[in-house]
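Internal tracking record. Fields below are filled automatically when a chain is submitted to the structure queue. Please do not edit lines marked as system-generated. If the sequence contains nonstandard residues, flag them in the REMARKS field before resubmitting.
Queue: standard
Priority: normal
Entity type: single polypeptide chain
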Amino acid sequence: RREPKEKLDPYFQAAQRLESQLGMYQAIKEGSAIRLVPPKGDTGGQIMGGVVDTDRWLSVAELQGDLKEKFTLLTRSFIHALPSETPAPIENAPPPLSETVAQFMDAARAQNPALYPAEKMINLEVHYKEMHPFMDAWALYLLAAIVLAAAWQSGNSIAYKVGWAFVLLGFAFHTYGFGLRMYLTGRPPVSNMYESVIWVSWGAIVFAMLFEWMKKSFFILLSGAVIGVLCLVVADLAPTILDPSLQPLEPVLRSNMWLTVHVLTITLSYSAFFLAWALGNIGLGFILRGQKPTADRPRALSDAVYRSIQVGVVLLAAGTILGGVWADYSWGRFWGWDPKETWAFIALLGYLAVLHGRLVGWVKNMGMMVTAVIAFNLVIMAWYGVNYVLGAGLHSYGFGAGGIEYMAGFVILNLIYVGYVGWVNANREGQLPTPKTTS
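SYSTEM-GENERATED OUTPUT FOLLOWS
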């Protein structure tokens, strides 16, 4: 089942993950997984099978001489620094941990100063890990959503401004974390599912703020805040499914220009469609509460859904075409009906059908909200399904595993909600008014 073209079912995907985790555990135990020392500058790299590998750093198990002694002393200092009920004898105490770390880093840097990261980069990555900006961002978005919902119901302008402040503050943390990842990796951080979830939610907040600034309608900014909470919570709480670690790019992606213009464009379209999905669900909630689709709030929500889908279609069409150009540059063909390409095209056709239906009058206010929710399943399939369910095609660098049951549950519950609202609305419109009696 290891053949490249053979698709693994969930059982064998789980077995593959378990094997990978056991292999990583064994590699850490043997000291071959953690690489701390760059290749020597005079050789340009390590000899591997007669070939010089300029990127391969020395692992702990490969350390020799002074480097090995310094790492051993560092290990002793680390163990001594751990809390213990039985304090170690003072006469056998190694030097302080900070001192042994500095000594080892100096020795490792001396191997090849050009390859060893600068102190600033190391401190910045530690700062990124300790700060956890995306957790702060979703907490602020959650506060914003609560305040904006209250402001929308009450019409309180002060609460509305407070909601804006929370969104802007959360967006500042969101952008800061995103900028840190870009600076540390030297590329747009959209090479895996974790980074794309962070980026799509960032784009949804941007669109929500722009539309809210133009419309002053409360509910658009509320929808953006809800998306920010949903995406960042999922990214924060599912590290085994969405890998948050900083990894080098796959060779096929090592073109910052194409990575930027294609991937960022097509995932920005997901942001607009995501915003339309949130707006549609909120609008259906008002209909469920008894408002007619032609009432002020459902009508305003329907118009906002329409504008969001328009923006998404433009971006998705541009991203799909740009992806074809990149495919021609990388693989020698513009279009090959790869699963990723096919589902992006299907999503584009689905949303184009929605826009045309609205244009000719087939899709009314209720229909816009229903189709915005249902059509987003096409985005889910193109975004998540191809990578985590189908697991086939040339876009293998984005493949992953896990979370299928949660995503399926999310989709099914959302469809049940849409069907229930439609059923309630149809029954309500089909009832005749009860005649009044006079005594």
